[in-house]
Amino acid sequence: MKLAFASTVAAALLAVGVTAASAQEISSRIIRFGFGLPEASNQGRAAKFFADELARLSDGKLKMRTFGDAKLGSDVQMQNALIGGAQEMMVGSTATLVGIVKDFGVYDLPFLFADSKEADAVLDGPFGRKLMDKLEAQGLVGLVYWENGFRNLTNSKHPVAKMEDFSGIKLRVMQNPVYIDMFNSFGANAVPLPYSELFSAMETGAVDGQENPVTTIESAKFYEVQKYLTITRHVYSPWIVLASKSWYDQLSGDERKILQQAAEAARDFERKDSREASLKAIDALKSHGMEVTELPPEELARLKEKAQPAADKFAAEGGAEVLKELQDAIAQAK
Ligand code: TF8
């Protein structure tokens, strides 16, 4: 009898405790959110949106401080800071995650996605989630994908209108074997470098060219040091919003929910904003003096063929399964 009473009281106390806790399960926290592009870029605008949304949903308790221009380090440095628990969050390229989860190289294989609609369906669907979940064992939590976009080529030497024109161009690529193999196979001399070192490498002539979406070419003012733009759309590049797992594990369920909700709202904002910006970017780049070349379909087909060994190598070195899964997911999205 006494025992039954005691356990009823205990249960009641527990219930009260749980309700009281859940009503205030948002602590006051500072979240350092780093990224590589300037504040005045699609990445910077979305970071600001994310911070505002987080503040709104948490009554100002989750305070996100944004640090653009690689102020907290390059993408790879920030990934390591997240893993070590020295930084809470970041957004950056998926391509530089290959040192942590090799399968991420699959997004870098050229000419996979036909358009951003396909990319959204695959990234936001089970394929994108499954790949993100592989990060957890390595100390990172993936929240959402944002759009970096279809990548295009720029250089300071000469117009690139056909594959032979790649020859002799020292081309900065992301630190990722698929990119190195792909551009070497086109005849360029691929130089892997962190994004944070790219502008000065072009300025000093350490490299002649680079490849990025037109939004970045515009916001990072690459037109100041690059004369020739070639529309190649060779890879659709996602960005990924990451959290430190050791930090994320300390969050309450409510905090995680709010974080995810704000990240998704920022994703939707970012994709819309990036797509609008990319429609205007080519004209803006022309007005800054860039010479724009459209690569004809037959040249694109040649590049695709030339890049095949890079894709085969990725598959042969353990990537076959994830590549097949991605191809199936894209086929489904069509
Ligand atoms: C690159 C990427 C960049 C990202 C960004 C700084 O070329 O396209 O957009 O790394 O987060 O490195």
Brief digest:
It comes from Pleomorphomonas diazotrophica. This protein is of the alpha/beta class.
List descriptors.
single chain; 334 residues; alpha/beta; D-Maltodextrin-Binding Protein, domain 2; five-stranded mixed beta sheet; four-stranded mixed beta sheet; 11 strands; binds (2R,3S,4S,5S)-2,3,4,5-tetrahydroxyhexanoic acid; TRAP_DctP_sf; ABC transporter substrate-binding protein
Number of domains: 2
Taking all Cα atoms into account, the compactness measure Rg is 22 Å
Structural class: alpha/beta
The helix/strand series, from N terminus to C terminus, equals: HEHEHEHHEEEHEHEHEEHHEH
Unreliably modeled segments: 12-22
Q: What is the number of strand segments?
A: 11
Going by CATH, the architecture of the largest domain would be: 3-Layer(aba) Sandwich
Overall pLDDT score: 94
Any idea of the CATH class of the largest domain? Answer: Alpha Beta
What ions, cofactors and ligands are bound? (2R,3S,4S,5S)-2,3,4,5-tetrahydroxyhexanoic acid
The CATH topology of the largest domain: D-Maltodextrin-Binding Protein, domain 2
CATH superfamily of the largest domain: Bacterial extracellular solute-binding protein, family 7
**Total number of helical segments?**
11
* Proportion of beta-strand residues: 15-25%
From the spread of the alpha carbons, the general shape counts as: globular
User: For the terminal residues, how far apart are their CA atoms?
Assistant: 66 Å
| Major sheet characteristics | 5 strands, mixed
Strand neighbour order, sheet with most strands: 2-1-3-10-4
The amount of helix comes to 40-55%
